[in-house]
């Protein structure tokens, strides 16, 4: 559901590994996929699927074993409400969306015990209709449901794939919070400073700002009962260093293209939690307020 930067990439890799994958997309991207298939440009090997099952109507596809839910957060409510025709008695819905709100949103539309949280450090975007660019990042996809046989089947498929490393975990909440803190800093920093991560880390003032965002996120997470585990700062650096110097967050890419942005669920959520929990978040509050102007896309 949402065959974009992440959904298009992950779906194509699963199809390449032999999975039976249908893509839910819309607009020019859907039209191009129907006409000419789906192309993935990737440093770990390009993919071309000349014929794909793709539709904007879940009813055209019908019940499936697993839905991978990767629309933007601002499209979640509508997309989740449309999932009905895909859901059978044993269907699982795995969300790889950023932030900490996705499971709750999905659980308003799908029975909560079918919803499985997840997070990925892959990076991708739609380069042109029908083409997804894999921009690097780490290939890891963390998911809950570590004892679920369906996740076991997904694991088998990912093990056969190129470039997808599925990691089922017992504590998905911890993973989601760690991704949230890491990403809120990365997205806020690369969006507000309009720069890739390389120049930010090598400029002393810019680096202080992105590290401040990281530290504010850590303080908020701790106050919310989700302290970052030992070695967090090192893991953040490893993730940021895995991206090319010009690598930006998906939010920064969307901002540049005049698309709506997920700031309310990232720096905005940090700001809101900070107010509620009594944690100062001057950096995230500044990002949220400054980018609020562009939250709905359009104007630049
Ligand atoms: N991109 C990345 O590198 C990463 C993204 N994420 C997270 O994954 C999620 C998805 O991001 P990303 O892959 O970048 O998103 P994209 O915008 O690239 O892809 C989402 C696609 O879903 C389509 N879509 C939305 N709603 C519907 C619908 N109801 N029916 C059919 N198609 C629909 C969108 O169409 P349209 O374009 O017309 O809106 C778009 O093509 C976000 O929460 C993001 O934060 C997580 C890790 C990395
Ligand atoms: C930083 C990244 C690519 C994960 O590595 C991401 O989650 C995003 O840009 O939204």
From TrEMBL:
<feature type="domain" description="Ketopantoate reductase N-terminal">
    <location>
        <begin position="1"/>
        <end position="142"/>
    </location>
</feature>
<comment type="function">
    <text>Catalyzes the NADPH-dependent reduction of ketopantoate into pantoic acid.</text>
</comment>
<dbReference type="InterPro" id="IPR036291">
    <property type="entry name" value="NAD(P)-bd_dom_sf"/>
</dbReference>
<dbReference type="Pfam" id="PF08546">
    <property type="entry name" value="ApbA_C"/>
</dbReference>
<dbReference type="InterPro" id="IPR013332">
    <property type="entry name" value="KPR_N"/>
</dbReference>
<protein>
    <recommendedName>
        <fullName>2-dehydropantoate 2-reductase</fullName>
        <ecNumber>1.1.1.169</ecNumber>
    </recommendedName>
</protein>
<comment type="pathway">
    <text>Cofactor biosynthesis; (R)-pantothenate biosynthesis; (R)-pantoate from 3-methyl-2-oxobutanoate: step 2/2.</text>
</comment>
<dbReference type="GO" id="GO:0008677">
    <property type="term" value="F:2-dehydropantoate 2-reductase activity"/>
</dbReference>
<keyword id="KW-0560">Oxidoreductase</keyword>
<keyword id="KW-0566">Pantothenate biosynthesis</keyword>
<dbReference type="InterPro" id="IPR008927">
    <property type="entry name" value="6-PGluconate_DH-like_C_sf"/>
</dbReference>
<dbReference type="InterPro" id="IPR013328">
    <property type="entry name" value="6PGD_dom2"/>
</dbReference>
<dbReference type="InterPro" id="IPR003710">
    <property type="entry name" value="ApbA"/>
</dbReference>
<dbReference type="InterPro" id="IPR013752">
    <property type="entry name" value="KPA_reductase"/>
</dbReference>
<keyword id="KW-0521">NADP</keyword>
<comment type="similarity">
    <text>Belongs to the ketopantoate reductase family.</text>
</comment>
<feature type="domain" description="Ketopantoate reductase C-terminal">
    <location>
        <begin position="171"/>
        <end position="293"/>
    </location>
</feature>
<dbReference type="Pfam" id="PF02558">
    <property type="entry name" value="ApbA"/>
</dbReference>
<dbReference type="InterPro" id="IPR051402">
    <property type="entry name" value="KPR-Related"/>
</dbReference>
């Amino acid at each position: 559901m949402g065959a974009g930067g992440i959904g298009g990439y992950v779906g194509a890799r699963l199809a390449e590994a032999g999975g039976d994958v249908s893509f839910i997309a819309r607009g020019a991207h859907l039209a191009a996929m129907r006409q000419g298939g789906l192309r993935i440009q990737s440093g770990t090997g390009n993919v071309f699927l000349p014929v794909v099952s793709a539709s904007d109507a879940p009813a055209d596809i019908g019940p499936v074993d697993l839905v991978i839910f990767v629309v933007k957060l601002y499209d979640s409510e509508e997309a989740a409400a449309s999932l009905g025709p895909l859901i059978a008695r044993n269907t699982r819905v795995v969300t790889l969306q950023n932030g900490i709100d996705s499971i709750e949103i999905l659980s308003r539309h799908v029975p909560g015990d079918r919803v499985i949280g997840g997070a990925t450090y892959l990076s991708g975007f739609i380069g042109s209709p029908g083409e997804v660019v894999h921009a690097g990042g780490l290939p890891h996809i963390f998911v809950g449901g570590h004892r679920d046989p369906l996740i076991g089947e997904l694991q088998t498929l990912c093990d056969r794939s190129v470039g997808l490393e599925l990691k089922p975990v017992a504590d998905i909440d911890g993973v989601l919070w760690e991704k949230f803190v890491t990403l809120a800093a990365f997205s806020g920093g690369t969006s507000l400073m309009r720069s890739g991560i390389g120049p930010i880390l090598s400029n002393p003032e810019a680096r202080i700002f992105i590290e401040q965002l990281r530290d504010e996120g850590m303080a908020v997470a701790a106050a919310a009962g989700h302290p970052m585990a030992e070695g967090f700062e090192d893991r953040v650096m490893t993730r940021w260093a895995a991206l090319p110097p010009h690598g930006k967050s998906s939010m920064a890419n969307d901002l540049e293209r005049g698309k709506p942005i997920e700031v309310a669920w990232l720096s905005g959520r940090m700001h809101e939690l900070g107010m509620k929990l009594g944690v100062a978040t001057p950096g995230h509050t500044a990002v949220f307020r400054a980018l609020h102007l562009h939250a709905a896309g359009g104007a630049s």
